[in-house]
């Protein structure tokens, strides 16, 4: 050891660590996805076992005799030890078998495929509104820090965090539909348009355009605006707050001062340089906000009778249909995990510092 120090050498422990190779990083990324999904499966499985609802009774009805009840219990595997039930549950899910819905008598996966496009349409419209309004509002608040525009954006954001979405939805329906007649009623379409367009993608606005039915497209869009605006308002609150925080940090940097000293226009300094440098973290913010909209649209869909996954889960819960509840919850959780992982991957690809 003394000889090594005298000669100016370094011990093996003092040598800089080599960055992980691409295969190792990919393997670690896939392992994290697998472990996260396994944790989601465990949570949904335990929820299905601790809720005070008897899945056997929900399947056979309360008038079934003891023999029918026991036969169904064995068929559902509820007579097995808990760990064996979990292994069986994981195996079924990996094969795409979420069970059969008691409410619709259809495979849960088929019901989810029919309902999810409506939720996707609503959440996508809401995140577009959230980004289109939230980012400029956050930039505007940061530029006018401490003045009335900043206070206004912060107050509106605070209201967005505080007001329950179902209350805001009911007020929106009362004001814009019942009183002012500016918006159509609940649902995705007027009744006489229902079923006139073949569900190619499940997104009714896209399907109407593909079929060349512009009248149905505008009707669907008019139904979409109010619930998407209500849901998007909560996204605006989050995105504007994070954009403001990122912008305040950038506006204090030396390169901003240098650009101003060189005579560069304020518009270019703010919207090109400062905003450009926060684009990478904003991707993560937008992705997480989008995931929250997908999983948090339950109350909005219930208020507006929007036939999406949230309304499907709510109706299933009210009818003690646990296969549908757990299947829908699992799909929402998987989408949330996927978007979270995608945002992390994009962050690593677009930010050079994350590659080190």
Automatic annotation (TrEMBL):
Family matches, as InterPro entries: BPD_transp_1_N, MetI-like, MetI-like_sf
Cross-referenced SUPFAM superfamilies: MetI-like
GO cellular component terms, A-Z: plasma membrane
Keyword field: Cell membrane, Membrane, Transmembrane, Transmembrane helix, Transport
Membrane topology summary: Multi-pass membrane protein
Main location: membrane
Keyword Iron-sulfur: no
Domain of life: Bacteria
Pfam families: BPD_transp_1, BPD_transp_1_N
Record Gene3D superfamilies: MetI-like
Gene Ontology MF terms: dipeptide transmembrane transporter activity
Membrane-spanning ranges: 26-47, 122-143, 155-178, 216-239, 270-291, 324-347
Location in the cell: Cell membrane
Record-annotated ABC transmembrane type-1 domain positions: 116-347
Family listed: Belongs to the binding-protein-dependent transport system permease family.
Protein name according to UniProt: Peptide ABC transporter permease
């Amino acid at each position: 050891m003394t000889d090594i120090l005298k000669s100016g050498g370094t011990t093996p422990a003092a040598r800089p660590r080599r960055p992980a190779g691409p295969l190792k990083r990919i393997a670690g990324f896939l392992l994290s996805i697998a472990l996260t999904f396994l944790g989601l499966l465990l949570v949904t499985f335990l929820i299905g076992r601790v809720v005070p609802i008897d899945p056997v009774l929900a399947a056979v009805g309360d008038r079934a005799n003891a023999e029918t009840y026991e036969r169904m219990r064995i068929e559902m595997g509820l007579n097995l030890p808990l760990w064996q039930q979990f292994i069986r549950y994981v195996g079924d899910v990996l094969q795409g078998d979420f069970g059969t819905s008691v409410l619709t008598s259809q495979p849960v996966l088929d019901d989810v495929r029919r309902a999810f496009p409506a939720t996707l349409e609503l959440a996508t419209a809401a995140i577009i509104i959230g980004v289109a309004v939230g980012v400029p509002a956050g930039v505007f608040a940061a530029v006018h820090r401490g003045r009335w525009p900043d206070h206004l954006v912060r107050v509106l954001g605070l209201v967005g965090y505080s007001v329950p979405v179902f209350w805001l939805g009911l007020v929106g329906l009362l004001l814009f539909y019942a009183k002012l007649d500016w918006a159509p009623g609940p649902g995705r379409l007027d009744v006489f348009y229902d079923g006139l367009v073949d569900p190619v993608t499940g997104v009714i606005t896209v399907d109407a355009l593909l079929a060349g039915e512009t009248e149905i497209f505008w009707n669907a869009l008019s139904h979409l605006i109010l619930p998407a605006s209500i849901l998007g308002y909560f996204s605006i609150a989050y995105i504007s707050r994070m954009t403001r925080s990122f912008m305040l940090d950038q506006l204090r940097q030396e390169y901003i001062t240098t650009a101003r000293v060189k005579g560069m226009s304020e518009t270019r300094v703010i919207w090109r340089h400062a905003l450009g440098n926060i684009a990478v973290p904003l991707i993560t913010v937008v992705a997480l906000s989008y995931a929250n909209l997908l999983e948090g649209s339950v109350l909005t869909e219930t208020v507006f009778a929007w036939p999406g996954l949230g309304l499907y889960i709510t109706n299933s819960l009210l009818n003690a249909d646990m296969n549908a509840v757990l299947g829908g919850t699992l799909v929402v959780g998987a989408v949330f995990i996927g978007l979270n992982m995608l945002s992390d991957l994009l962050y690593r690809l677009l930010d050079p510092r994350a590659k080190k």
